[in-house]
Amino acid sequence: MSIDKETARRVAKLARIAVPEDRLDPLATEFNAILGFIEQLQEVDVTGVEPMVSVTPQRLKRRADVVTDGGQPQAVLANAPDAREGFFAVPKVVE
Known about the structure:
two-stranded antiparallel ribbon; glutaminyl-tRNA synthase (glutamine-hydrolyzing) activity; 95 residues; asparaginyl-tRNA synthase (glutamine-hydrolyzing) activity
């Protein structure tokens, strides 16, 4: 697949990126280089290779899924514009 100037213009428009007219040819060249690299990657045989999340084999630390108040309610409410009885106070919006 080859990207031409018109396709580069359309991709830039879809991405909502303002690209000057004189930069469309270099942008198309960059797109073609990226697509060429992707084609190279697709040639790699990955049969029998397990998907991985990280290059180092480690498990994420986990904590118990327990509901708490965070242990610092005063610090949480310190910047609230209006707090009453340990809760955020908000204006009434429903009649």
